[in-house]
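FAQ: What does the model actually see?

It sees only this:
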Amino acid sequence: MKYDPFQQKAIDHINEGHSVIVSAPTGAGKTAIAEHVIENCLKRKEKVIYTAPIKALSNQKYRDFSKDYPEQVGILTGDVNINPDAPTLIMTTEIFRNQILETKSSLKKYSWIIFDEIHYLDDRSRGSVWEESLIFLPDHMNILGLSATIPNLEEFVKWLKTIHHKPVKIVKESKRPVPLHFYFQCQGQVFDDVKNLKKFGYQSLHVRASSAYRLPRSAPIKPNRLSPLIKNLQELNNLPCIYFAFSRRRTETLAEEMELFNFLSPKEQKQIETHFKELCEKFDIAHEPSTCKLKPLIEKGIAYHHAGMLPTLKEVVERLFATRLIKIIFTTETFALGINMPARTVIFDELKKYADHSFRIMKTRDFYQMAGRAGRRSIDTEGHVYCRINPHYISIDDLQRVIYGKPEKIVSRFNASYATILNLYYNYGEKLYDVYPLSFHFFQEQQFTHKKALKLLRSKVDLLKELGLIRKSQVTEKGLFASKVYGYELILSELFSQKILQKLSSEELCILCLAVVYEPRKGVNVPRLSKKAAALQVLTDDLIVPILRIEKKFRVKPYSKLCHFHLSNCMEGWLEGESFDEIFEYTQADEGEIVRYFRMVIQVLREVSDAFESKEFKSKVHKAIATINRDVIDARKQLQN
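And it is asked to produce this:
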């Protein structure tokens, strides 16, 4: 295989035994470097771990690598455990971090760790997991980090060298293999440069735009109609197209607006009908209402894809898109994250999205992660990117910053979880405070911020002492239990220490764990609960209130989440053998939400079981998992299809 210069440079460093961080645009071919590491390890009878930020990407890599290296690949994602002793092991970054902290010796046989999307270290809610994985990485393991463009890559790599005392090579590629051409739909017209957009889109004969070139709300504007835009793409042969919208409902509404179009020839229509039917039968979803709803769109080369769909139906859509029979797909941004689904054209519904409890203009890095799906390597000479602009909602300055500005630096989000702190305290005792200076946060921030971060760490330790998870400079039995249940440590350890978990039936355990993990979306009402669920709600409310009071006392944020019983009726019905269609009637949640949270329950039950020595309790948990893990909930079955 002939490699691009940046790929060859990275491979040369790898062959010399060096760790490497690769920064390159989406679609540049970073995966080829990861494949070289895997092939090298297999040849040398060494083991390699591949981590990904989301389960969908982990699953895709498992399928792809399993085809290339049969019987040599395994996967661990919490809800799936296949071939865990394989020489190539794929896992989420959380699973890897947990293994480092809990059973570091289990990683002795692995010589390489591949971090896909390593810039996720900047993620506000999960970035600390990447940082902890890098801080505590075993000395014998080399790193291959794959990333989108990082402007402060040198700073990041300098930190890695400082804490691991060995060379880490940088490979940067700024050139895209397929260049991008930008267009703007505004006031019913399409402009191919910002100058004309500013002149004709942001200025009116009657009302001049502000100095920031954002029209006041009073200024009349012409609507941006979707049909002419899509028709134009069809005439120019610029399909297939990925259309990014930032709401699940919006993706479905837009797809339904396209129903008057038929993008397929009679031959293609026959092919997609056959393929869709075969896939739906394979995943046993042919008669699901959501499948029937999507079918008429699929038969015209149209689809939608979002987290609220059944995971199996999402996978059917992904496989159809890969055949190039889907000509336009309306999707949310997760479709852009690593999943190898390029198109000729990408359209942005808008350049604002909801994040951190408010709407904000997109980051340049996020924009290019998505825009980079435009242009298929070795097929297209250029990729086309359309931004639909409403001049009331985004200024010309903000627009130019998103598209032509520099990608944002990655910054540390270091905020060690209670479980991480307990594992560190078990190993280091009061010396755990010496770990903070190893963090990227310490490396990046000023002395004043160092003091604040250390104060928060000490507050967390004091809180754990007050709750009885640490006593007399030792992690207690309660603390050891909490150290194995990441994310839900305080409520579950309280239930454990009061011997409540031990007394629950397998059904009650499932209902409880679902309430522990579930996070309702805004405006979703709690249904009327069964006696069993209502009793558990009273129980957990009584336990969580004192925990929140203590967190408030020690000023530790974010606070532990409340237990929410919105899906308990669904769980009870499912455990009694009802079908997925039947339990779906009990809730306002989307199908994908139900599946995702049921799978999270399986993961939490496994963690709880691992924290117990009692064979009787383990047997109860095993029974609970077996009862939940059927039909569309069974992630292993989906993956092996």
